[in-house]
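User: Fold this; tokens only.

Assistant: Input:
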Amino acid sequence: MACCPSPCRRDNVLAWLLCSDPSHVLEALGVLCALAQESRRALVEQILRESSRKQCAVVLTTLLRSPDPWLCSSAAYIFGALLENEALVQELQEWTPGDNNPVGLLAQLLARDDPNTVMYSAGAVASLAESSEGRKWLLKRDDICRQVLDHLPQLLENIRDSTVNSAALILARLCLCEVACQSLLSHSSAADTIKRLVQCLGHGHTDTAMNAAFAVGRLCGSELGRTLILAEAREHKLVSSLQTLLCKEAGPDAGQTACFALSCLATDTDGHTLLLDSPSFPSVLDGLFQLLLRKEPDCAWFAAMTVKVFVSRPSGVLRVRQHRLLEQQLQSLSSCPFLGLELQEEVNGCLRKLQRLPKPFPVRVNRLIQGSYAVTWEPCVPESGLEVTYSLLNKDSILYCGPMCHMTIPPSLLASGKTLFLQLKLSTSDGDTSPCSEPAVFETEKVRQRPGPPRELLVIGCTATQVRLRWIAPEGEVKPKKYRIFRENVLLETTGELGVIVGGLSPGTHYHLRVCAVGPGDMLGPGAEVQVHTVEFQDHAPSTLSVAVLGRHELHISWGAPVVPLGRLFNYEVRINGSVAYLGTERVYTARRLSVNTAYTCVVTAITSRGRCQSRPITKRTARCQYYPNRQVPVQTANPAKAIKEPSEVSGKVRKPPSSLGRLPGLLHTPSQPEDVAQATDGSRILSGPTHHNHKKGSNSKKRTVEPVAGLQSGQRPQKTADTNENPGSVSHKPVRSRAELDLLTSHSLCQKHTLLRAKTNPGMVLPWKAQKGEQQDKGRFPLINSHSMFATPLTVTFCTEQKR
């Protein structure tokens, strides 16, 4: 490169900077530092006019790597001036990519031992963070940003005030970006950084304290930052440090910055409490008052905004009200015609919070149903949020004092019959008292005393729909004229007796009943209360109804007494398919002579002195008819010879009229029974089997076959079976159908002894037969039919008689 023109002046300083001669470079750096110190803006404008500014930026970046402290610090100082311009910042990002990035080199210089190098490097980083492009450039590289944050705690406690100021300025400008705030608070050195930052609030240099106050206000916007700041506030006297910035000597800018920090801190409940509990809070109010007196609108706006935050809570209202001059200044500003719109809004907001209690409206008096009087009034909800205490006065005497908006006039005033002058007055805890309302003149009527509550209220009876109550008259001189019964607040009955029946209730429901005595003048006394639960409706009806099927013609019905009898029980009524089958006091009944395979619905009703209560119906079906094949097994009789009788004797029996025929004792015959089944008085069955007549020559006999059916229970009807003739030549005849034929066969002497065939198994069958009158009776045991043969095959018993030709 050609030799630079001599000497080095402002117009050719860049040419000397680009010279290869080191002495020329040193001389150029000195001229550039002098220009920056004289006017940083003029230096930036000169460089922007030069076409070789890119080469100069590369040379300055190279000098940041120099081990010479003077060269490094000079280059950092010049970069501090250049990075203030946003256009140069954009160009530097394009000219110095990668490792040639001057921002990364400046971050490394913060760890140098040379104080000048550290100071100028910190200033250059602060200049970079001033513009949005510079902050983006710094935050783009996480490694560079972490290096800067790592060195901030040491920079904030540096021995040089300018270095500390530069570090506080870096924090203040980084906190303008939410991303930078989050990066700062999430860094490992966040607690140390905020601790040093709070200490800087009390720094002797105003600019340093202002930068720290702005950073504190910005960090209070997040919960983590506010927590870290409050942890260090009391130890490092944060409130007193901010109060110092508010004083008149610090200047308007410092006061505005302090207002910003105080308002951000007081937004949170803990911060608000910290400020009010601080001994410096009265001095803070003095500083705000001084700012309101300034003619600068910005100062007044910041002061009014801070006061508005203080009075956002009732405790702040009480403290600000104690500073009379501050409130008076706000009222003076509100009446100023030249006040700006934004300032007017803040001032009016403060005054609404500080407003005193207004004069209340007159009270209202209403007569109650019990004969007493209730006094009500409108509630007052001031914007201050303070709790209001209401005082009701009768001239000079206080009738009520408390937070409620109603009261009942005491009986002592009502009994006197005097005229009342009721007035309402409001008050708050700080001594603020409203004027009294207009008096409400009220002439009371002389009211007699009320009767006392009924005694020993009892439930003496309870059904599904009714409750019977009983009580004793109340004590005292006032005798009740009548009683009123309430369900909840609904009047149900009015009676003059000492008992009542409350009807129209629902089964299985809980009720709250109250009985009140009514005295003279319809004065309703206090009530006696009772809880009652009505029973279920089915509790009055017969319980546990059971219906069991007994074969094809009978039903066994049983039931229990009602769980809760309704009055005095008279009878039980059993209805089967709607018809009354039984009426009596027993709780069991057997229905007989029913149809086969038929459904019957049974209902039992309890008939009492207070009505009828019916059980739930139960439907059962009688058994079906079952058919079995007729299998005959010959059985030997005890004495076949004795079973033979003369034909004349038989024919004589046949010629008798039906009225003279002999009958089986106790034999019942009803149209509902089949013709081949008869029922004895002891409940056993007589089966009439088919009769076989043998028409062969030389034989004149007739047979009677009785077949017990396997599995047939006692009392059940056997099924009809077809006749079986073992001889193919024999002729089958129909079974005996007429009553005359049945009587003929049963009255005939079929056997000489009374034979009883019984199957001892269950089910079984009893077959009674009556011997011929005049014949010898067998008083021994009845013969038994073997149970095995009873179930193995049908049993056929044959009795024969021979007739003489």
